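Subject: Sanity check before I submit

Could someone independently write out the structure tokens for this chain? I want to compare against mine line by line before I put it in a report. The sequence has 345 residues.
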Amino acid sequence: MRLWLLGIVTVLALAFFFNPVSVIDNYSDLEQQTLSEKAPEQTVDAKPKQKAQKKQQFENELAQQMSVLASHYEKSIRFPHYSIPINSGQTDLLEPLKVLPVVLNLGEGVDSSASLAPKQYIFKHGDIMEATLTSVGPIKPKQVKMELVENNKKITSFNVEAKDGKFVGVIKKTKDDWPVDLHIKASFDFGEHGRLNILSPIKYSPDNGTIMATGEPYVDGANLSIPVELEINQPGRYRLTANFFNQQKSPMAHLSAKQNLKKGDNTWVLQVHSEVLRSVDNPGPYILDTWTLTKLPERPGIRTSYGDSKIGAVSIKGFELNKYDTTPWKDPQDQARLEFFKKLQ
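---
Independent answer below. Compare away.
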């Protein structure tokens, strides 16, 4: 929600922060100029009252929209960026590594289709690569080939076998240093439609590190802090994320943190801001799940790569809500943007 609101007002916000006085003065000057401009002859504008009413209606509608934006933004900045409330519809955060089959539909009137799905979205150096081509309807794929490609240029081929009406392609374990962003390409004959291709995106990453375990949670001011133990293979700057749920597995918050990590054992802390807990009046216990570990690029041109997790859903002990500091979260930049939005009303 916060990103959506910021996207709508980015241009206005940037202009304001570079020169807020100029933006407001220019807006006022433009309004005065519009009001002071008159037609050379009275006969040119036959309905000045109607035009004035339309102008007033437009300004009222714009003010209402800015009021709604400001209200939504004010609600969203109650929470820090490292602990953002989420709902069950935000599947991009709840299922970041979910494999979505790429379906090739041939349009209306065709009752056959084919789809390609890799076994997983992220493959690590040394993993067995596997993908499956399936079909629905009377037309079945024939002469199936699968290739690993970068920018549609072949890197290597899969060994393809037919199994139970499906076609499974496999590349045995390899530690070749291929690029991170790749596609699996399936080519096949599909009846009267000729030879068709399906491309499915995957990631091929070094094994940068592993999320090993969580420690005992504790209250730290306004936050519920959860230690996380990691084993890092490549030093650098990392992003750690997980999703925070209640005991019924309804999502409560998306947690994230960035930190420079050394090679070897590291202890990190994910934090849940107590405002998230108070907003739903939930003292716990909770569940922490859907882990990701990402190694961020050191410089432009370097691809994001990934780590792994040995843990899944973890039960997290809760504390009475009165144990937390109740000082509201405030970010100076967020507050400055909010004041700007209110002025625009």
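---
OP: Matches mine. For the report I'm noting this point. The longest helix spans residues 48-76.
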